[in-house]
């Protein structure tokens, strides 16, 4: 039986971040398979405005409650998005595929309030609890609340999809009964091959690329510090593609170490531009660091770098380690250790034969994460419910 599906996420754009890329790919594959589906992401502007006003007021009046109030407002916004989608289509959905805890809670509420016979599938990229452990490390009240939200989201789901084995373990710590299937992230190899064919060129100055959101978990300051210690820094530039809340920290490091002429902060770029930057880089860095329970999952930047034939140096954690360990596709180094990262970068850049082996093995390894096999596993889950 072919399902009629709504894909629901609080993510605001398909052109931003790993989740955006994941959603864009799912949309494309559902269309190719001719699945009736609706993509619902983000909230309506009026809901975002209401949420901002409510949360700013709560921040001053009820400091302890402003985060729960903000999250409740978020769920209410997602409920309105979902109800509008359901009422606006003649092909009534029988499955909602959610991509975060709040979307799942919204789907649960709508199913009960509207008396709908729909299945809920949740893909977990990371538990909500991880976000709270990172952003509110000392607030145990919020940790308990986030864990409760995660539990009720998993409990409402017929199946949970985890993007790597660590995410499955994290789900199991919160809910030990919901069926969990591991489906690692994937990349469109045809798209990457097209970029390799059309866009690869020799840059005026060879460079090392870090294509990551500038947030603490992605370890961009570690990359800058490692670059400062690299012998290769005399010849190779460091190019950072992405933006985020850690940009002031990164800019300060660059100024402190007088690297203004060597480190280029390109800011946020389109997906196509970002892929072109990775394709033309000599090395792709993924210097993620673990924070509390958060550990990098199956990084799309890693998979894209593999498919583009760009040698990888990455932290030996989570999905990075799960994919790269025991292969010649990338070098793994301990997280948050700039000198180890610098030594690995120099090792790759000083050995042309090693780079060529890494490129070839990387493209071979990427075939194991192609979209066709990835979508087939999603399809099997949809049709089994």
Task: Examine the coordinates and then state which fold CATH places here, giving the name of the CATH topology of the largest domain.
Answer: Rossmann fold
Helix content: 40-55%
Strand content: 5-15%
Structural class: alpha/beta
Number of helices: 16
Gyration radius, rounded: 21 Å
The CATH class label of the largest domain is Alpha Beta
Distance between the termini: 10 Å
CATH H level, superfamily name of the largest domain: Glycogen Phosphorylase B
Quaternary structure state of the chains depicted? single chain
Largest sheet: 6 strands, parallel
Please state the second-level CATH architecture of the largest domain: 3-Layer(aba) Sandwich
Spatially, the strands of the biggest sheet line up as: 2-1-3-4-5-6
Number of domains: 2
Morphology: globular
Q: What is the string of SSEs from the N terminus onward?
A: EHEHHEHEHHEHEHEHEHEHEHEHEHHH
* Strand segment tally: 12
Mean pLDDT: 88
């Amino acid at each position: 039986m072919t399902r009629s599906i709504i894909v629901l996420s609080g993510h605001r754009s398909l052109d931003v971040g790993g989740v955006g890329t994941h959603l864009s790919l799912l949309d494309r594959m559902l269309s190719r398979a001719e699945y009736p589906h609706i993509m619902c992401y983000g909230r309506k502007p009026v809901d975002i405005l209401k949420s901002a006003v409510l949360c700013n007021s709560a921040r001053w009046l009820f400091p302890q409650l402003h985060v729960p109030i903000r999250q409740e407002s978020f769920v209410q916004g997602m409920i309105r998005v979902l109800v509008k989608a359901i009422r606006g289509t003649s092909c009534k959905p029988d499955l909602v595929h959610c991509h975060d805890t709040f979307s799942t809670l919204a789907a649960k509420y709508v199913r009960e309030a509207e008396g709908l016979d729909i299945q809920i599938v949740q893909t977990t990229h990371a538990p909500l609890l991880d976000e709270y452990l990172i952003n509110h490390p000392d607030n145990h009240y919020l940790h308990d609340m986030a864990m409760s939200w995660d539990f009720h989201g998993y409990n409402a789901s017929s199946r949970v999809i985890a993007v790597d084995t660590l995410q499955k373990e994290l789900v199991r710590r919160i809910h030990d009964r919901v069926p969990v299937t591991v489906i690692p992230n994937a990349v469109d190899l045809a798209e990457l091959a097209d970029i390799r064919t059309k866009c690869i060129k020799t840059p005026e100055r060879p460079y090392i690329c870090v294509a990551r959101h500038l947030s603490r978990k992605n370890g961009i300051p570690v990359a800058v510090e490692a670059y400062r210690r690299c012998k290769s820094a005399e010849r190779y530039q460091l190019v950072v593609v992405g933006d985020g809340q850690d940009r002031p920290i990164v800019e300060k490091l660059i100024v402190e170490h007088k690297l203004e002429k060597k480190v280029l902060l390109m800011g946020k770029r389109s997906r196509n531009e970002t892929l072109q930057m990775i394709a033309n880089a000599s090395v792709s860095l993924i210097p993620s660091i673990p924070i509390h329970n958060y550990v990098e999952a199956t990084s799309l930047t890693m998979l894209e770098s593999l498919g583009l034939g760009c040698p990888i140096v990455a932290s030996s954690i989570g999905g990075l380690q799960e994919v790269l360990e025991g292969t010649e596709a990338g070098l793994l180094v301990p997280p948050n250790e700039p000198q180890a990262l610098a030594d690995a970068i120099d090792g790759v850049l000083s050995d042309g034969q090693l780079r060529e082996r890494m490129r070839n093995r990387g493209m071979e390894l990427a075939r194991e994460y192609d979209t066709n096999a990835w979508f087939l596993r999603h399809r099997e889950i949809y049709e089994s419910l």
